[in-house]
Amino acid sequence: MYSPSAAGSADNTTAGSRAFRYEVTGLRQNSESDKNGYAVRKSGSVFFTVPYSRMNEFMRRITRLGGKIVSIVPITVGSGHGDPQPPAPVAVAATPEPAPAPAAVPAPAASHEHIFPTNVPVNTYKPKNPFVGKVISNEPLVREGGEGIVQHLTFNLSGGDLRYLEGQSIGIIPPGTDKNGKPNKLRLYSIASTQHGDLLDDKTVSLCVRQLVYTNDAGERVEGVCSTFLCNVQPGDDVVITGPVGKEMLLPVDPTANIIMMGTGTGIAPFRAFLWRMFKENNPEYQFKGLAWLFFGVAYSGNVLYKDDLEKMQAENPDHCRITYAISREQQTAQGGKMYIQERIKENADELWALVQQPNTHVYICGLRGMEPGIDEGMSAAASKYGVNWADYQKQMRKEERWHVETY
């Protein structure tokens, strides 16, 4: 987040005393712009002065108007007069280069116990004393045109004490022995359900599992031991479970926080849990009012897991839920390359940069490790426009527990 103290401002007491000057292009004249009295044209830029407290609302409105944010420049406003009111926008013929802003400095971090849930359950069940659950269902997720086998599994936890939170993982111990004759070791899987479970009775846990299949150096087909077991279990079968484990991907308790999620393939599992808690459940203690933005990368449209549910949540919550796909084998970049998730990050880097400067914005990355450099590249390009070193800013976000990564 931009800090006026870095610019030598005397007015540095509260976030509400800051404002940002937005330059926006591509606004289209429509019923929304007519309603707000905006005379806009695609060939020019429109400038807005936006109070810090209204940044989320403003960016959602620009999206509805079809605009693109070109630059965001922090400005200083006088104290003692409340938030400045945005002036009427003025269209200009040409787009000037954005003036460099003072280096952004994140706000001091709150303590962990004030950001995330307390009493997080960890290792309730260990490998030497696991819990044995029962399979309730095992449903395919890959649709026509997709590749591979991905299943949504739900297990019955009745009779046990396996409590968990969104963002945690459980271990699965597959039956049988390894090549050395020893019992198979556990594999960890991100939990894909909320703490209340898919049946909302606090007695189930769900996973999103892709069967691992590859060809070894000898040209032989090799199937993953645990993933193959899980993808083929039937209702009523036993499943040996350990955990839960993990605190890296916990959802903050603040219902007004902005949650940016970047995932590939089955890396959507924790984000399904997040989004279901935000938009599908009725939790009196957690009424989500922030922005949840999912960037989801897959190879084919048929591999967009939970597609109908995701798009329904976005349609029903347009001000709070955004879904952006990167379908590498079907979509292309402006340069004609494959559309990977990092390319979507680059396309939206300026808006993402504006969001991460807000102290209640959290970024979560889950899936293939190879997407991390591309994400950093996109964010670095946006941050450099304002004289900020992205690597340093990212380190500060990690220190503040706002940058969460679980890749493999």
Topology, element by element:
Layout: E1 18-25, H1 31-36, E2 45-51, H2 55-64, E3 68-76, E4 91-92, H3 112-115, E5 131-140, E6 150-156, E7 169-173, E8 187-190, E9 204-210, E10 213-215, E11 221-223, H4 225-231, E12 238-245, E13 258-264, H5 269-280, E14 292-298, H6 307-316, E15 321-327, H7 341-347, H8 349-356, E16 361-367, H9 372-384, H10 390-399, E17 403-407
Parallel strand pairs: 13-14, 13-16, 14-15, 16-17
Antiparallel strand pairs: 1-2, 1-3, 2-4, 5-6, 5-12, 6-9, 7-8, 7-12, 10-11
Helix pairs in contact: 7-9, 8-9
Helix content: 10-25%
Figure out the total of helices: 10
Question: Sheet with the most strands?
Answer: 6 strands, antiparallel
| Low-pLDDT segments | 1-17, 29-43, 78-103, 105-109
Number of strands: 17
On the 0-100 scale, what is the average pLDDT?
A: 82
Distance between the termini: 30 Å
Strand percent estimate: 25-35%
Q: Shape, please?
A: globular
Indicate the structural class. alpha+beta
Q: Give the strand order, joined by hyphens, for the main sheet.
A: 8-7-12-5-6-9
Please provide the ordered H/E string of secondary-structure elements: EHEHEEHEEEEEEEHEEHEHEHHEHHE
Radius of gyration: 23 Å
